[in-house]
């Protein structure tokens, strides 16, 4: 959804109705996660994807139908054993789509949501998926306000409270309530989609490897900052346009920078005078991933220096060093793929093994 919102925002501002299909639930080996979206707008223009191709044609027809004035729909698609070419997921999974029309009258907060996402401001969108409430009704929730209604004041109040909690976690998924927001009932299904600001990737050491890591970090959706104490290397022209470049001592910059449980820290300075004070700071603060470049000998020396600096075994166990997965990488671009692979594997609990050598679902179920 985040990727297609700029286009949807333009359609919305122009007052053009469009049909929006959103994945609200998946099971088994589904190709897209909840929140994936496809929209059909003017002249049958299509943006986005809900299945990577498996059910796009059916989603297109549904979105076109609701955009022309049809009622919101909730449809589930799964694998057809009888006909592999029928509408379904040949990967063996199942997805449920909520398809609704979006107009200023039906969704008064959509334009503001698009603006907030573009500006990096946190917002959650709650949409009725099923039950005794108006299907497709939407409520946009910010930390300080809410726009729209799900059809009942009690339901609005309960969902607003939960939406703010989900927003703090950046979570997305179905939640269940009673018609007036009763939390012990489950007759109304509401899809909460959180648009938290993009997670940060902090890359220390403005070398060729850093440029490659920064590029792949942006591709993965991170807001990337590169920091180096040497101004001759820390110059914006050496990095992609959307990368922030800072010329400061790394540990001093990190000390004044907020991190959270989604932050990725890549230490590529490869120099003890930078590495030790920087990692001493990094390993004592929230972060999803902390990796440091260097040989095994470099790592052993660095770990000893960090222990002498007072870091505990538990703190040192957070360090991924040497950085990256064993891909046999040589070039900066290959090393960047290796680092990105380790970050993704750590995020989702992957093993890093070839899928051909593993068993079970390719896309494990991760949402309730």
Automatic annotation (TrEMBL):
The XdhC- CoxI domain, residue ranges: 11-78, 117-178
Domain XdhC Rossmann: 201-343
Gene3D superfamilies found in the cross-reference section: NAD(P)-binding Rossmann-like Domain (3.40.50.720)
Organism of this sequence: Streptomyces hawaiiensis
Name of the protein: XshC-Cox1 family protein
